[in-house]
Amino acid sequence: MDFQNLLDDIAGTVAASPPRGEVAAYIPQLGAVNPDQFGIAVVTGEGEVFSAGDANVPFSIQSISKVFALALVLATDGDGVWQRVFREPSGNPFNSLVQLEQEAGIPRNPFINAGALVVTDRLLSVTGDAAGTVLDLMRQESGNPGVGVDPVVAESEHLHSSRNASLAYFLASCGNLENPVPDVLDNYIRQCSLAMSCVDLALASRFLASNGVRVDGTALLSSSQTKRINAVMLTCGTYDAAGEFAYRVGLPGKSGVGGGIVAVVPNNLTVVVWSPGLGRSGNSVSGLNALDEFTTRTGLSIF
Ligand code: GLN
Question: How many CA atoms lie within 13 Å of 222's alpha carbon, on the beta-carbon side?
Answer without folding.
Answer: 7
